[in-house]
Amino acid sequence: MTTTAYRTCPICDAICGLRLTLDGDRVTSVTGDEADPLSRGFICPKGASLGAIDADPDRLRTPLIREGDDWREASWDEAFAAVEAGLSGVIERHGRQALAAYFGNPTFHTMAGFLYRQPLSESLGTRHIYSVSTIDQMPKQVACGLMLGDPMAIAVPDLDRTDHLVVIGANPLESNGSLCSAPDFPRRLRALRRRGGRLVVIDPRRTRTAKAADEHHAILPGTDAALLLAVVHVLLAEELTTIGVDVTGLDELRALARDFAPDAVAEHCGIDADAITRLARDLAAAPTAAVYARTGTCTAEFGTVTQWLVDVVNILTGNFDSQGGVLFTRTAHAEIFRAPEPYQQGRWHSRVKGMPETMGELPVATLADEIETPGEGQPRALLMIAGNPVLSAPNGPRIGRALPNLEFMVAVDPYLNETTRHANVVMPPPRITQSPHYDFLEQIVAVRNYTRFSPAAVPLASDQRSEAEIMARLTLIVAGAGAAADPAQLDEQIIEQVLTALTQLPGSGVSGQDPAAVQAGLDGADGPERFLDALLKAGPYGLSLAALRAEPHGIDLGALEPRVKELIRTQSGRIELAPAELADDVARLRSGLVRRPAEMLLIGRRQLRSNNSWLHNVEPLRGGSNRCTLLVHPADADRLGLAERAVIRSAAGEVEVAVEHSDTIRQGVVSLPHGWGHTGGRQRVATTDAGVNANALTDESVVDVLSGTAVFNGVPVTVRPATS
Ligand SMILES: Nc1nc2c(c(=O)[nH]1)N[C@H]1C(S)=C(S)[C@@H](COP(=O)(O)OP(=O)(O)OC[C@H]3O[C@@H](n4cnc5c(=O)[nH]c(N)nc54)[C@H](O)[C@@H]3O)O[C@H]1N2
Ligand SMILES: Nc1nc2c(c(=O)[nH]1)N[C@H]1C(S)=C(S)[C@@H](COP(=O)(O)OP(=O)(O)OC[C@H]3O[C@@H](n4cnc5c(=O)[nH]c(N)nc54)[C@H](O)[C@@H]3O)O[C@H]1N2
Ligand code: SF4
Ligand SMILES: [Mo]
Predict the structure, then answer these.
(1) 423 neighbors 442 (Cβ within 8 angstroms)
(2) Ligand at shortest distance from the CA of 12
(3) Interior CA angle at 251 toward 248 and 253, to 5°?
């Protein structure tokens, strides 16, 4: 029987609405949902391939238990019993500090990830919590934590109304945007230019986004902090500031920017001093403007300083919390993700390298150090939830060598891959179409206030478990309640806690109500749906699960409006323009301005028909431009004698890869996409023409100091012709 289902695509941050046609439980076609008020029918090749992703025969259907080098299919009861035996043994022998967990990128998209990450982390009772945040956006969160007191207070560009957009280290025409959920970036950027606005892109590569821009500056990798300090310098020196929000620290900011005149940074950044001055003046002169920076500037040295400066520039030019500038989204669900107390970091430190905790986690860059180094608190068991750090984390191969040292590892993942193959037990979540979906996190950074819920389109078979149930049972196991405990009871406990807090919160939609009565009246087929219903009822729009179900294409809740006053959590009660924690790093940056550049600098690259490491097994997405090649400028290729293949070497390792000659990349810079280099596991498509692991080159010992975030961009390398 043919049916139609409307769903949000869960793959990337663009949260596009999709229209699926199903024949029984098989997706036969996917188109963009024209009636979705945010995405209006937009779809990318990944969303269009959702059927193939869902039906990939290499996706696991049943749990696997490893026996030596072999895998045996197991029942869920057996698998959970094996996890209970494995984890309780480690707790008995070594205590809870021997437990570790890693939460990968898909946990930021799934309902189960949002609902269970914190309860699971708390039940583990360990400091060894790691996540993809420290190989992604943590610098932004630390900067927001220090400036606003809330690391979840992330301002997004007012894309549809701005007159002047400066995009730094992001390529939304291929990534479809990030920390800025805006389906159909191409249309939105065209509209910007059609209404007379300007698009400026700062990127070492002339990306698809740069090609669509009015102006492109091919900056040297890793130098955005210096560039932005120079912009601040000009804005202050030329008295071009129009601050519209309540700030403190302007004098300290002035002192920090003093030595960063455009002339002082031009050579370091590889951008003319005049161009830098103009950048600042144009931002100040535009009726409205927004500076937006993403992974090219987060996963780089001085990532946190850069993210801080992005918002400093938005503030100085009067564009912070202001229409056409950057604004904060007001979500349909209650903001339980905001902590009431001011942000703090470094409450504890990692055991081996003494790296500070941020947002309750330690840097992935030091995971291998921790697993390899004996002593009290050495991790001996790992829960790998939706992550592939062997391909995604800096010096991933070292993590691959460290994982076999663990006494026990469980992975929650649909694939047996480079990372999960080291697990003792692998537990596959159901297919995408079998899970309900709601973007708890992406909706926080949407360019309009917007909400949408998608029920599961295909029911679970009796031998499948929802991802939420898997996470609930793992939580119960590590809490000592055992593999047989009732997960629904845990869901209700979590909901009770949340409702108790929300009914006491002035202004919440359930303020002053009896939590038990609210809980008794909740709607929803399972824990995640009931949890969502609770948060919607407590949210600012008086919505509910039933209201969202009645609008399967999503609900537009209006344009973003100023609201920073209610978000500020700093001790001073104001926005900190020059948080003290950043001063040392600015000094370090100043002393690095004269540093001689390495022979070549490596940067990354995202490809439209790929997503990190986990879509290379999907045949329809393979081929064409979606290949693992090293982009080299023809002049560099000539100078280095490169033809078809090259060997790249860094402090961390060496790989041999196909060369793609292209004048879109800045001279002195080479680009290699990440997520390739598939080995082992059970991915028959991905392991053919597997590419190489870019993270064999990235160096886990170099991080953005303030956030512990890995440096993927601006890695010093040497490149020579391959001899074989
Ligand atoms: N197709 C596709 N889409 C994706 C993903 C994917 O893998 N593929 N991944 C998703 C995820 S997890 C994320 S976090 C987002 C990321 O979204 P984006 O941040 O937009 O992703 P990138 O395309 O990596 O863009 C980073 C840009 O920074 C540039 N860059 C590198 N170094 C520097 C530097 O030092 N300075 C400056 N100014 N620029 C630099 C790179 O050339 C690149 O164009 O994309 C998401 N969407
Ligand atoms: N050199 C370099 N490295 C990078 C980056 C870069 O730009 N350059 N980008 C970084 C960024 S921004 C990110 S976000 C990380 C990603 O880092 P990770 O999250 O560690 O890696 P992914 O490749 O996204 O792996 C996701 C895993 O989750 C599984 N999975 C997919 N869907 C689901 C699901 O619904 N449930 C569960 N349980 N599992 C699922 C996949 O099979 C895969 O094993 O990579 C980072 N690494
Ligand atoms: S842009 Fe992202 S959310 Fe939209 S269809 Fe593509 S992968 Fe899905
Ligand atoms: Mo990411």
Answers:
(1) no
(2) 3
(3) 80
- How far does the centroid of ligand 4 lie from the alpha carbon of residue 611, in Å? 9
pLDDT digits (tens, 9 = 90+) for 576-605: 999 999 998 999 999 988 676 678 999 999
> Which of 295, 666, 669 to probe ligand 1 with, by most ligand atoms within 8 A of CB?
295
Q: Is the CB of 430 under 6 A from ligand 3?
A: no
Q: Please give the CATH topology (third level) of the domain spanning 64-126+339-439+469-553.
A: Rossmann fold (3.40.50)
Q: Which of 378, 379, 383, 423 is nearest to 400 (CA)?
A: 423
Q: How do the domains of the chain map onto residue ranges?
A: 2-54, 64-126+339-439+469-553, 138-331+564-589, 598-721
Pocket test residue of 43, 50, 188 for ligand 3, highest count of atoms within 8 A of CB:
43
φ, ψ of residue 382 in degrees (nearest 5): -135, 135
CATH topology of domain 138-331+564-589: Dimethylsulfoxide Reductase; domain 2 (3.40.228)
Round to whole Å and give the CA distance between 552 and 649.
51
CATH topology assigned to domain 2-54: N-terminal domain of TfIIb (2.20.25)
Nearest CA to ligand 1 atom 35: 221
**How does pLDDT run across 457-513, given as a tens digit for each residue?**
999 999 999 999 999 999 999 999 999 999 999 999 999 999 999 999 999 999 999
Arch. (CATH architecture) of 598-721: Beta Barrel (2.40)
Whole-structure pTM value: 0.98
Residue 591 half-sphere exposure, CB side, CA atoms within 13 Å? 5
